[in-house]
Write a structure and sequence with these properties.
alpha/beta; Rossmann fold; 299 residues
Length: 299
């Protein structure tokens, strides 16, 4: 299926690709919003190097995955990476052995998943960019992740080795109503604008959810099949969504559930009282993460 919408985002990616300087770009947004699809489709999967982090895997498994990707893209199979410093050193060697002067697009998908406890991934990644890649005008480094709070904390607002190192960042938002209508048309799903608006209120503009809609079912039938049937694809989506975004998601979920019972909103003090919490730093941090991921609005 061809790409729907995303005209502004494609223009931004084109500008980074055509730049004559090294570029380090973070693409982020909530789970299922189409980040990977956008990047892979825009570049037609023509990457100098591509690898995606593994969900809920340990450091050894992440390194094995990275090693396999290096070999697939031409690295020496004998150059085994036993830690992240070695892994990025081998990626550096792969780049240096290339004689091409063309733009080298390096895409590290689901970057936060690589950063397992005590793995020292982030320090090795920082060193790779600061010591090597940032001086290579042929490199376009794109990193992506659904864990928006991790991207913002460790890349966009970092105060350590990656402070002010990003040359750009792109927040991918859900489809608009217009883009949803275009998607349904391209997919051959016949819906009135009233039904499109109803679907939007249920699923938002999340492309993955739209992709689950069946042409031969009405909207109520699709909702039942997707959300309530015995093996419904989205039956456990609520829990999966929050656990994929936040390391400790219990408070995030509690806040969202509490707000769902107050359609007109509540004050910060009221919310803390409802949850039986003190209005402290942890509460503030969690509210900020929910706002950054687009789940709540703070006024």
């Amino acid at each position: 299926m061809k790409m729907i919408g995303r005209e502004a985002e494609q223009k931004i990616l084109a500008d980074y690709y055509e730049s004559s300087r090294p570029e380090f770009v973070a693409v982020y947004g909530r789970r299922r919003v189409g980040k990977t699809f956008l990047i892979r489709e825009f570049f037609k999967n023509d990457f100098f190097f591509y690898v995606s982090g593994l969900a809920k895997s340990n450091a050894a498994e992440q390194l094995d995955n990275f090693n396999e990707a290096l070999i697939a893209y031409g690295a020496d199979a004998e150059m085994v990476s036993r830690n992240w410093q070695a892994a990025f050193r081998n990626l550096k060697g792969l780049i240096q052995q290339s004689r091409s002067t063309d733009r080298k697009v390096i895409f590290l998908d689901e970057l936060p998943w690589f950063d397992t406890p005590k793995s020292k991934f982030l320090s090795a990644f920082e060193h790779f960019w600061n010591e090597f890649a940032s001086s290579r005008p042929d490199i376009l480094l794109i990193v992506c992740g659904s864990a928006t709070s991790w991207i913002i904390k460790n890349l966009i607002n970092d105060r350590g080795g990656l402070h002010n190192r990003l040359t750009g960042h792109l927040s991918l938002e859900p489809f608009s109503l217009r883009e949803c209508e275009a998607y349904y048309k391209e997919a051959g799903i016949v819906m009135t604008r009233y039904s499109i608006a109803e679907a939007y209120m249920i699923f938002g503009g999340i492309p993955y959810y739209l992709s689950l809609m069946k042409r031969n079912l009405s909207l109520p039938q699709n909702v039942d099949a997707m959300c309530f049937a015995k093996n419904a694809e989205l039956r456990m989506e609520f829990a999966r969504l929050y656990s994929s975004l936040f390391v400790h998601s219990e408070l995030h979920i509690a806040i969202v559930r509490a707000l769902a019972e107050h359609a007109s909103g509540v004050t910060r003090d009221e919310l803390a009282r409802i949850l039986g919490l003190s209005d402290g730093g942890g509460f503030t941090k969690t509210l900020g993460e929910l706002e950054q991921c687009g789940f709540i609005r703070l006024k």
